[in-house]
Amino acid sequence: MDSRPSPLDVLDGAPSVLPHGAEVTTRVERLLGERRLPPGLVGRVTRARDGGYDVQVLGLGEVWFRRDELLPRREGQAAFAVRRETAWSALRQCAVLEATVGSRAWGLADATSDTDVRGAFLLPFRWTAGLVEPPRDLVSADGSHTFWEVEKTIAQALRADPNTLELLFVPSVRALDEVGEWLLSARHAFVSKQLFGSFGRYALRQLDSLTKSARLAAHRDTVLDWLRANPALTLDDVAARLADLSPREHASSAEALLATKTYLKQLYRSLADQGFIAANDFASLKAWALAGGVVHRGDDDGETFARRLSPRNAYNLLRLIHLATGWLRTGAPSFEATGALRARLLDIKGGGVPLSEVLAEAEALAPALEAARDTSPLPDGPDLAAAHGLLQRIAEVRAARWLSRAPGPWGHDAPPAPAPASTDPRVGP
Question: Which of 293, 223, 234 is CA-nearest to residue 263?
Fold first, then answer.
């Protein structure tokens, strides 16, 4: 693998920590085997390693880069990364609740599974006043630990957010402070029939969307075959043919043609971004098809497919439907998959089950999900009065700890609150 410097090196300023999940653009050209990787590839940081970062690059998988070979994509991303690391260092001690979540909590972990920790933290009093917007999330550098500010945790729980309710109810959850104990004591106030929409119906919609994306990926290969067979085809010709094959319903033929033409443009743009074709245009797509170009198994034609066609996404969505159905039916959650369900989910996770089969299985579960909602012992909505009282109680104890200079990170040992800068969103120009 070879690399050379890029003129972009001068644009990023001082090096900074890139957090897990940060969107980056590569600054260097490289050869990966016989394949040329041009500068400007888009990816996401997956981990810090050996003085650099593993980056998930579209269509390639993970590729390691030095920090100075990566440019954060969004304006201010570098400064944001520094603030995020500063917040983590200062406020990690303020956690009040934490739990091991994800596949290890679901009984679906394997040798490659990470250990994911989620939790809640309480801001010290001085961090809640003034001009500086306080952090609402704490995320470790490798992305394995995520903590939400207490008020954000409660707001998410009231919306029946699956990740938040998992934090509050998994058996591994433990309180690190009395505020965490209050959260756990009040957790049933957040649970209602809203689980039906946020867990079950959400999962069904996402699985349907996954299947549509899979069909489009299959159509990509069809488009290439058409162009090889008839190089005279225009963009409109191919779009019209594809509209006839598309499983999506449209209000009119003009709308269907526009949708397939948009897909084709996305197709050749993503192939150009990955270095498959010479330029971002239909002519380059046609030339590549005539030269025998293919997207091999494991490659992909865009960020959307790369993210959404993962078997891990599919198995987790099916798991959510089972979890929602059981929780609605009995009034209590069961996060760990066992028996035949566990075996089935592991097969899906491993890629051994076609996505269309997963969707059919999910659709077959829909009547049971609806029946569980209709007969559920859970209330129609969350207990807002209980949540309101909990927030007031938390605000009072936070102020009391600070004013009394009680020992600990909310009183005598509280980390100093940041001072405003001219770029702070609450501060004028």
Answer: 223
